[in-house]
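Sat 14:20. Reprocessing the chain from the morning session after the first attempt stalled halfway. Input below, unchanged.
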Amino acid sequence: MKNTEPTPVSVPHEGTTRRDFLARTGQVAAVSALAGVSLPLVHAAEDNTIRLALIGCGGRGTGAAANALEAPGGPTKLVAMADLFEDRVSRSYQSLREKYGERADAPADRRFVGFESYRKAIDCLRPGDVALCTTHAAFRPRHVEYAIEKGVHVFMEKTFAPDPGGIKRILRAGEAAEKKGLKIGAGVMCRHSTARQALIQQIRDGAMGDIQLIRAYRMDSGYRMGRLNPQPSELLAQIRIPYQFFWTSSGIFIELMIHQIDECCWIKDGWPVSAHGVGGRGPDSTDCAQNFDTYSIEYTFADGTKALVTGRYIPKCHNDFATFVHGTKCAAQFSGDIHAPTVQRYKDQRIERANIAWRPERETVDPWQAEWNVLLDAIRNNKPHNEAKRAAYSNLAAIMGRAAVHSGQIITWEEALASDFMFCPDVDRLNESSPAPVTADANGRYPAPVPGVWREI
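Finished this time. C-alpha coordinates:
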Protein backbone atom coordinates (compact mmCIF):
# COMPACT_ATOMS: atom_id res chain seq x y z
CA MET A 1 0.00 0.00 0.00
CA LYS A 2 1.37 3.42 -0.95
CA ASN A 3 1.17 6.76 0.77
CA THR A 4 -1.12 9.40 -0.54
CA GLU A 5 1.06 12.47 -0.89
CA PRO A 6 0.68 14.66 2.20
CA THR A 7 0.38 18.39 1.87
CA PRO A 8 3.79 20.07 2.30
CA VAL A 9 4.02 21.98 5.55
CA SER A 10 6.37 24.59 6.97
CA VAL A 11 6.71 22.65 10.23
CA PRO A 12 7.14 18.88 10.57
CA HIS A 13 4.48 16.43 11.62
CA GLU A 14 4.89 13.02 13.22
CA GLY A 15 3.34 10.97 10.44
CA THR A 16 -0.21 9.70 10.39
CA THR A 17 -0.16 7.05 13.06
CA ARG A 18 -2.97 5.82 15.26
CA ARG A 19 -1.54 7.93 18.06
CA ASP A 20 -1.67 11.06 15.94
CA PHE A 21 -5.27 10.24 15.11
CA LEU A 22 -6.00 9.92 18.80
CA ALA A 23 -4.46 13.32 19.40
CA ARG A 24 -6.37 14.97 16.58
CA THR A 25 -9.65 13.46 17.75
CA GLY A 26 -9.06 14.45 21.33
CA GLN A 27 -7.81 11.30 23.03
CA VAL A 28 -5.07 12.61 25.25
CA ALA A 29 -3.29 11.37 28.31
CA ALA A 30 -1.83 12.54 31.58
CA VAL A 31 0.85 11.42 33.93
CA SER A 32 1.86 11.41 37.55
CA ALA A 33 4.75 10.42 39.72
CA LEU A 34 5.77 10.10 43.37
CA ALA A 35 8.88 9.70 45.43
CA GLY A 36 9.90 6.12 44.98
CA VAL A 37 11.44 3.20 46.76
CA SER A 38 14.22 0.88 45.77
CA LEU A 39 12.03 -2.07 44.85
CA PRO A 40 8.61 -2.02 43.16
CA LEU A 41 5.60 -4.00 44.24
CA VAL A 42 4.19 -6.57 41.82
CA HIS A 43 1.46 -4.03 41.10
CA ALA A 44 0.81 -0.52 42.22
CA ALA A 45 -1.36 -0.72 45.31
CA GLU A 46 -3.86 -2.67 47.33
CA ASP A 47 -6.69 -1.76 44.96
CA ASN A 48 -4.68 -3.14 42.00
CA THR A 49 -4.85 0.21 40.20
CA ILE A 50 -1.72 1.14 38.30
CA ARG A 51 -1.36 4.91 38.30
CA LEU A 52 0.11 6.77 35.37
CA ALA A 53 2.09 10.00 35.07
CA LEU A 54 2.30 11.49 31.58
CA ILE A 55 5.45 13.51 30.89
CA GLY A 56 5.04 15.03 27.45
CA CYS A 57 1.46 15.75 26.38
CA GLY A 58 1.78 15.82 22.60
CA GLY A 59 0.28 13.34 20.16
CA ARG A 60 2.53 10.43 21.04
CA GLY A 61 2.13 10.90 24.76
CA THR A 62 -1.61 11.26 24.43
CA GLY A 63 -1.82 8.09 22.37
CA ALA A 64 0.35 6.16 24.81
CA ALA A 65 -1.80 7.24 27.75
CA ALA A 66 -4.92 6.14 25.88
CA ASN A 67 -3.32 2.74 25.21
CA ALA A 68 -2.45 2.40 28.90
CA LEU A 69 -6.01 3.21 29.90
CA GLU A 70 -7.39 0.73 27.33
CA ALA A 71 -5.16 -2.18 28.37
CA PRO A 72 -6.85 -5.25 29.88
CA GLY A 73 -5.83 -7.06 33.05
CA GLY A 74 -6.72 -4.53 35.73
CA PRO A 75 -7.54 -0.88 36.38
CA THR A 76 -5.29 1.99 35.34
CA LYS A 77 -5.68 5.68 36.14
CA LEU A 78 -3.97 8.81 34.91
CA VAL A 79 -3.11 10.93 37.96
CA ALA A 80 -0.55 13.52 36.83
CA MET A 81 0.65 15.33 33.71
CA ALA A 82 3.67 17.42 32.76
CA ASP A 83 4.82 19.39 29.75
CA LEU A 84 6.80 22.51 28.91
CA PHE A 85 3.68 24.09 27.45
CA GLU A 86 0.45 24.70 29.35
CA ASP A 87 -1.71 24.57 26.21
CA ARG A 88 -0.57 21.03 25.48
CA VAL A 89 -1.33 19.89 29.01
CA SER A 90 -4.78 21.45 28.88
CA ARG A 91 -5.73 20.01 25.49
CA SER A 92 -4.46 16.59 26.45
CA TYR A 93 -6.27 16.54 29.76
CA GLN A 94 -9.53 17.77 28.30
CA SER A 95 -9.49 15.12 25.59
CA LEU A 96 -8.63 12.28 27.94
CA ARG A 97 -11.15 13.43 30.48
CA GLU A 98 -13.89 13.49 27.85
CA LYS A 99 -13.09 9.95 26.77
CA TYR A 100 -12.14 8.26 30.05
CA GLY A 101 -13.98 10.31 32.64
CA GLU A 102 -12.72 9.90 36.21
CA ARG A 103 -9.96 7.54 35.07
CA ALA A 104 -8.23 10.68 33.76
CA ASP A 105 -7.88 12.14 37.24
CA ALA A 106 -5.29 14.89 36.95
CA PRO A 107 -6.77 18.01 38.55
CA ALA A 108 -5.07 21.38 38.25
CA ASP A 109 -2.73 20.77 41.19
CA ARG A 110 -1.40 17.64 39.45
CA ARG A 111 -0.90 19.22 36.04
CA PHE A 112 2.58 20.71 35.89
CA VAL A 113 4.35 23.01 33.42
CA GLY A 114 8.02 23.83 32.94
CA PHE A 115 11.44 22.22 32.72
CA GLU A 116 11.15 20.69 36.21
CA SER A 117 7.55 19.56 35.75
CA TYR A 118 8.62 15.97 35.07
CA ARG A 119 9.89 15.66 38.65
CA LYS A 120 6.63 16.92 40.11
CA ALA A 121 4.59 14.52 38.00
CA ILE A 122 6.74 11.50 38.81
CA ASP A 123 6.63 12.42 42.47
CA CYS A 124 2.85 11.87 42.37
CA LEU A 125 3.34 8.14 41.75
CA ARG A 126 3.62 5.20 44.12
CA PRO A 127 5.93 2.18 43.89
CA GLY A 128 4.83 -0.02 41.00
CA ASP A 129 3.17 2.79 39.04
CA VAL A 130 4.28 3.88 35.57
CA ALA A 131 5.92 7.05 34.26
CA LEU A 132 5.21 7.70 30.58
CA CYS A 133 8.32 9.46 29.26
CA THR A 134 7.03 10.84 25.97
CA THR A 135 8.74 14.20 25.53
CA HIS A 136 11.29 14.84 22.80
CA ALA A 137 14.49 12.80 22.72
CA ALA A 138 16.76 15.48 24.22
CA PHE A 139 14.98 15.12 27.56
CA ARG A 140 14.32 11.40 27.53
CA PRO A 141 17.47 10.21 29.37
CA ARG A 142 17.00 12.46 32.39
CA HIS A 143 13.32 11.68 32.71
CA VAL A 144 13.93 7.93 32.54
CA GLU A 145 16.78 8.21 35.03
CA TYR A 146 14.61 10.08 37.51
CA ALA A 147 11.76 7.60 37.21
CA ILE A 148 14.13 4.71 37.88
CA GLU A 149 15.64 6.60 40.83
CA LYS A 150 12.13 6.93 42.25
CA GLY A 151 11.35 3.23 41.86
CA VAL A 152 8.60 3.40 39.22
CA HIS A 153 8.25 1.53 35.96
CA VAL A 154 8.81 3.35 32.65
CA PHE A 155 7.28 3.53 29.23
CA MET A 156 9.54 5.60 26.95
CA GLU A 157 8.61 6.75 23.48
CA LYS A 158 10.94 6.88 20.54
CA THR A 159 13.34 8.39 19.83
CA PHE A 160 15.25 7.60 22.98
CA ALA A 161 18.16 10.02 22.67
CA PRO A 162 19.45 12.29 19.90
CA ASP A 163 23.12 11.32 20.18
CA PRO A 164 25.53 8.61 21.45
CA GLY A 165 26.03 10.32 24.82
CA GLY A 166 22.30 10.21 25.46
CA ILE A 167 22.08 6.58 24.37
CA LYS A 168 24.71 5.64 26.96
CA ARG A 169 22.51 7.24 29.63
CA ILE A 170 19.53 5.16 28.50
CA LEU A 171 21.67 2.02 28.66
CA ARG A 172 22.79 2.84 32.20
CA ALA A 173 19.20 3.58 33.25
CA GLY A 174 18.15 0.22 31.82
CA GLU A 175 20.83 -1.52 33.88
CA ALA A 176 19.67 0.30 37.01
CA ALA A 177 16.08 -0.72 36.33
CA GLU A 178 17.17 -4.34 35.94
CA LYS A 179 18.82 -4.29 39.36
CA LYS A 180 15.68 -2.83 40.94
CA GLY A 181 13.30 -5.21 39.20
CA LEU A 182 11.63 -2.34 37.35
CA LYS A 183 10.05 -2.78 33.92
CA ILE A 184 10.81 -0.63 30.88
CA GLY A 185 8.67 -0.63 27.75
CA ALA A 186 9.89 1.17 24.63
CA GLY A 187 7.91 2.70 21.79
CA VAL A 188 9.35 0.71 18.89
CA MET A 189 5.98 -0.98 18.69
CA CYS A 190 6.51 -3.08 15.55
CA ARG A 191 8.28 -5.69 17.70
CA HIS A 192 4.84 -6.39 19.19
CA SER A 193 3.16 -6.94 15.81
CA THR A 194 1.94 -10.55 15.64
CA ALA A 195 2.09 -10.50 11.83
CA ARG A 196 5.75 -9.48 11.85
CA GLN A 197 6.48 -11.97 14.63
CA ALA A 198 5.06 -14.72 12.42
CA LEU A 199 7.34 -13.77 9.52
CA ILE A 200 10.33 -13.56 11.85
CA GLN A 201 9.60 -17.13 12.93
CA GLN A 202 9.49 -18.23 9.28
CA ILE A 203 12.83 -16.51 8.69
CA ARG A 204 14.34 -18.23 11.74
CA ASP A 205 12.94 -21.57 10.53
CA GLY A 206 14.65 -21.14 7.14
CA ALA A 207 11.59 -20.56 4.96
CA MET A 208 13.36 -17.74 3.12
CA GLY A 209 16.83 -19.27 3.08
CA ASP A 210 19.74 -17.04 4.07
CA ILE A 211 18.81 -13.35 4.25
CA GLN A 212 20.94 -11.39 1.80
CA LEU A 213 19.28 -7.98 1.48
CA ILE A 214 16.79 -5.80 3.35
CA ARG A 215 15.25 -2.66 1.79
CA ALA A 216 13.40 -0.02 3.81
CA TYR A 217 11.78 3.16 2.48
CA ARG A 218 10.03 6.19 3.87
CA MET A 219 9.57 8.76 1.15
CA ASP A 220 7.05 11.59 1.25
CA SER A 221 6.53 15.27 0.44
CA GLY A 222 8.77 16.73 3.11
CA TYR A 223 9.22 18.83 6.22
CA ARG A 224 11.03 22.01 5.21
CA MET A 225 10.87 24.92 7.61
CA GLY A 226 10.59 28.60 6.89
CA ARG A 227 12.23 31.28 8.96
CA LEU A 228 11.57 30.62 12.66
CA ASN A 229 9.97 33.23 14.88
CA PRO A 230 12.14 33.09 18.02
CA GLN A 231 9.59 34.84 20.24
CA PRO A 232 9.10 34.76 23.14
CA SER A 233 12.09 32.39 23.45
CA GLU A 234 14.44 30.95 20.84
CA LEU A 235 14.85 27.82 22.99
CA LEU A 236 11.11 27.23 23.38
CA ALA A 237 10.52 27.97 19.70
CA GLN A 238 12.93 25.18 18.75
CA ILE A 239 11.29 22.78 21.18
CA ARG A 240 7.87 23.59 19.68
CA ILE A 241 9.02 22.23 16.30
CA PRO A 242 11.68 19.73 17.39
CA TYR A 243 12.03 17.62 14.25
CA GLN A 244 13.89 20.44 12.53
CA PHE A 245 16.76 20.38 15.04
CA PHE A 246 19.15 17.55 15.82
CA TRP A 247 19.59 18.40 19.49
CA THR A 248 15.91 18.23 20.35
CA SER A 249 14.64 15.13 18.58
CA SER A 250 17.39 13.56 16.44
CA GLY A 251 16.12 15.26 13.28
CA ILE A 252 13.50 14.11 10.82
CA PHE A 253 15.36 11.06 9.44
CA ILE A 254 15.67 9.21 12.74
CA GLU A 255 12.24 10.35 13.93
CA LEU A 256 10.71 8.71 10.87
CA MET A 257 13.04 5.78 10.16
CA ILE A 258 13.93 4.40 13.59
CA HIS A 259 11.12 1.85 13.32
CA GLN A 260 12.34 0.46 10.02
CA ILE A 261 15.98 0.46 11.12
CA ASP A 262 14.79 -1.49 14.16
CA GLU A 263 13.02 -3.89 11.78
CA CYS A 264 16.27 -4.42 9.86
CA CYS A 265 18.10 -5.28 13.09
CA TRP A 266 15.28 -7.58 14.19
CA ILE A 267 15.32 -9.44 10.88
CA LYS A 268 19.08 -9.94 11.19
CA ASP A 269 18.90 -10.61 14.95
CA GLY A 270 21.93 -8.38 15.40
CA TRP A 271 23.40 -4.92 15.01
CA PRO A 272 25.15 -3.48 11.95
CA VAL A 273 28.94 -3.43 12.00
CA SER A 274 29.19 -0.38 9.75
CA ALA A 275 27.21 2.20 7.83
CA HIS A 276 27.92 4.56 4.99
CA GLY A 277 25.61 6.72 2.96
CA VAL A 278 24.85 9.83 1.00
CA GLY A 279 22.31 12.61 1.27
CA GLY A 280 21.71 16.28 0.72
CA ARG A 281 19.26 19.01 -0.17
CA GLY A 282 17.54 19.85 -3.43
CA PRO A 283 18.99 22.84 -5.30
CA ASP A 284 15.68 24.66 -4.85
CA SER A 285 15.69 24.25 -1.08
CA THR A 286 15.30 27.31 1.10
CA ASP A 287 14.88 25.13 4.20
CA CYS A 288 15.97 26.93 7.36
CA ALA A 289 16.14 23.71 9.42
CA GLN A 290 19.08 21.36 9.90
CA ASN A 291 17.74 18.32 8.02
CA PHE A 292 18.70 16.99 4.63
CA ASP A 293 16.00 16.27 2.04
CA THR A 294 17.45 12.85 1.27
CA TYR A 295 19.16 10.09 3.25
CA SER A 296 20.38 6.84 1.70
CA ILE A 297 22.28 4.45 3.96
CA GLU A 298 23.87 1.06 3.39
CA TYR A 299 24.21 -0.92 6.61
CA THR A 300 26.48 -3.96 6.72
CA PHE A 301 25.94 -6.77 9.22
CA ALA A 302 28.54 -9.19 10.54
CA ASP A 303 27.86 -11.85 7.88
CA GLY A 304 28.07 -9.30 5.06
CA THR A 305 24.32 -8.92 4.63
CA LYS A 306 23.25 -5.44 3.51
CA ALA A 307 20.31 -3.32 4.58
CA LEU A 308 19.47 -0.34 2.38
CA VAL A 309 17.51 2.40 4.17
CA THR A 310 16.16 5.33 2.16
CA GLY A 311 14.45 8.49 3.37
CA ARG A 312 13.42 11.18 0.90
CA TYR A 313 11.32 14.25 1.75
CA ILE A 314 10.63 16.27 -1.42
CA PRO A 315 7.25 17.27 -2.90
CA LYS A 316 5.81 15.87 -6.16
CA CYS A 317 7.98 12.73 -6.13
CA HIS A 318 7.26 9.02 -5.86
CA ASN A 319 6.23 8.13 -2.32
CA ASP A 320 6.85 4.84 -0.52
CA PHE A 321 6.65 3.47 3.02
CA ALA A 322 7.59 -0.19 3.28
CA THR A 323 10.22 -2.76 4.28
CA PHE A 324 11.19 -5.74 2.09
CA VAL A 325 13.39 -8.77 2.76
CA HIS A 326 15.25 -10.91 0.22
CA GLY A 327 16.52 -14.39 1.05
CA THR A 328 18.22 -17.01 -1.09
CA LYS A 329 14.85 -18.79 -1.50
CA CYS A 330 12.40 -15.92 -1.86
CA ALA A 331 11.44 -12.37 -0.94
CA ALA A 332 8.92 -11.00 1.56
CA GLN A 333 7.31 -7.77 2.61
CA PHE A 334 7.86 -7.08 6.28
CA SER A 335 6.03 -3.80 6.82
CA GLY A 336 3.70 -1.46 4.98
CA ASP A 337 2.34 2.06 4.74
CA ILE A 338 2.16 3.94 8.08
CA HIS A 339 3.58 0.82 9.81
CA ALA A 340 0.67 -1.30 8.60
CA PRO A 341 1.11 -5.08 9.13
CA THR A 342 1.42 -5.64 5.38
CA VAL A 343 3.30 -8.89 5.81
CA GLN A 344 3.58 -11.53 3.09
CA ARG A 345 6.07 -14.01 1.70
CA TYR A 346 6.43 -14.46 -2.04
CA LYS A 347 7.11 -17.56 -4.13
CA ASP A 348 10.36 -16.07 -5.45
CA GLN A 349 11.95 -12.63 -5.70
CA ARG A 350 9.05 -10.96 -7.52
CA ILE A 351 7.18 -8.47 -5.31
CA GLU A 352 3.78 -8.99 -6.90
CA ARG A 353 0.30 -9.62 -5.52
CA ALA A 354 -0.18 -12.64 -7.78
CA ASN A 355 3.08 -14.12 -6.47
CA ILE A 356 2.18 -14.26 -2.75
CA ALA A 357 2.84 -17.67 -1.17
CA TRP A 358 1.92 -16.95 2.47
CA ARG A 359 0.29 -14.40 4.72
CA PRO A 360 -0.01 -14.45 8.52
CA GLU A 361 -3.27 -14.40 10.43
CA ARG A 362 -4.85 -10.98 10.69
CA GLU A 363 -3.77 -8.99 13.75
CA THR A 364 -6.47 -8.63 16.41
CA VAL A 365 -4.59 -6.03 18.48
CA ASP A 366 -2.58 -3.22 16.93
CA PRO A 367 1.09 -2.98 17.99
CA TRP A 368 0.64 0.33 19.85
CA GLN A 369 -1.89 -1.36 22.12
CA ALA A 370 -0.03 -4.67 22.25
CA GLU A 371 3.15 -3.10 23.65
CA TRP A 372 1.12 -1.71 26.56
CA ASN A 373 -0.72 -4.96 27.14
CA VAL A 374 2.63 -6.75 27.46
CA LEU A 375 4.17 -4.08 29.72
CA LEU A 376 1.25 -3.93 32.16
CA ASP A 377 0.95 -7.70 32.26
CA ALA A 378 4.65 -7.88 33.16
CA ILE A 379 4.12 -5.35 35.94
CA ARG A 380 1.05 -7.07 37.39
CA ASN A 381 2.54 -10.54 37.23
CA ASN A 382 6.19 -9.62 37.90
CA LYS A 383 7.48 -10.97 34.59
CA PRO A 384 10.86 -9.90 33.20
CA HIS A 385 10.41 -6.98 30.80
CA ASN A 386 13.14 -4.49 30.00
CA GLU A 387 13.35 -3.19 26.44
CA ALA A 388 15.87 -0.44 27.20
CA LYS A 389 18.98 -2.06 25.72
CA ARG A 390 17.31 -3.27 22.54
CA ALA A 391 15.63 0.08 21.97
CA ALA A 392 18.82 2.01 22.69
CA TYR A 393 20.85 -0.14 20.31
CA SER A 394 18.31 0.29 17.50
CA ASN A 395 18.45 4.04 18.13
CA LEU A 396 22.26 3.90 18.03
CA ALA A 397 22.11 2.08 14.68
CA ALA A 398 19.97 4.93 13.38
CA ILE A 399 22.43 7.48 14.79
CA MET A 400 25.41 5.83 13.09
CA GLY A 401 23.55 5.88 9.76
CA ARG A 402 22.68 9.55 10.15
CA ALA A 403 26.29 10.30 11.11
CA ALA A 404 27.58 8.46 8.04
CA VAL A 405 25.46 10.63 5.75
CA HIS A 406 26.20 13.89 7.56
CA SER A 407 29.96 13.30 7.80
CA GLY A 408 30.54 11.52 4.50
CA GLN A 409 32.48 8.83 6.38
CA ILE A 410 32.05 5.12 7.05
CA ILE A 411 30.92 4.80 10.68
CA THR A 412 31.43 1.55 12.58
CA TRP A 413 29.39 0.11 15.42
CA GLU A 414 32.47 0.22 17.65
CA GLU A 415 32.90 3.94 16.96
CA ALA A 416 29.26 4.62 17.75
CA LEU A 417 29.42 2.61 20.99
CA ALA A 418 32.59 4.40 22.09
CA SER A 419 31.35 7.91 21.32
CA ASP A 420 30.25 10.32 24.03
CA PHE A 421 29.17 13.02 21.59
CA MET A 422 26.18 15.14 22.60
CA PHE A 423 24.59 17.97 20.59
CA CYS A 424 23.70 19.75 23.85
CA PRO A 425 25.98 18.61 26.72
CA ASP A 426 24.20 20.83 29.25
CA VAL A 427 20.69 19.68 28.32
CA ASP A 428 19.84 18.82 31.95
CA ARG A 429 20.49 22.41 32.98
CA LEU A 430 18.24 24.08 30.43
CA ASN A 431 15.52 26.35 31.75
CA GLU A 432 13.14 28.99 30.46
CA SER A 433 15.93 31.59 30.38
CA SER A 434 18.59 29.44 28.68
CA PRO A 435 19.93 30.35 25.25
CA ALA A 436 19.13 27.93 22.44
CA PRO A 437 21.81 25.30 21.68
CA VAL A 438 21.90 26.34 17.99
CA THR A 439 21.33 29.74 16.43
CA ALA A 440 20.40 30.92 12.95
CA ASP A 441 22.52 32.98 10.60
CA ALA A 442 21.51 36.37 9.21
CA ASN A 443 19.21 34.65 6.72
CA GLY A 444 17.42 32.68 9.43
CA ARG A 445 19.07 29.37 8.50
CA TYR A 446 20.39 26.98 11.11
CA PRO A 447 23.66 25.04 10.71
CA ALA A 448 23.24 22.09 8.37
CA PRO A 449 25.78 19.26 7.98
CA VAL A 450 28.61 19.67 5.50
CA PRO A 451 29.94 16.20 4.54
CA GLY A 452 33.69 15.98 4.96
CA VAL A 453 33.58 18.55 7.78
CA TRP A 454 30.65 17.69 10.05
CA ARG A 455 31.11 15.31 12.99
CA GLU A 456 28.51 13.81 15.33
CA ILE A 457 30.18 10.56 16.43
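The radius of gyration is 21 Å.
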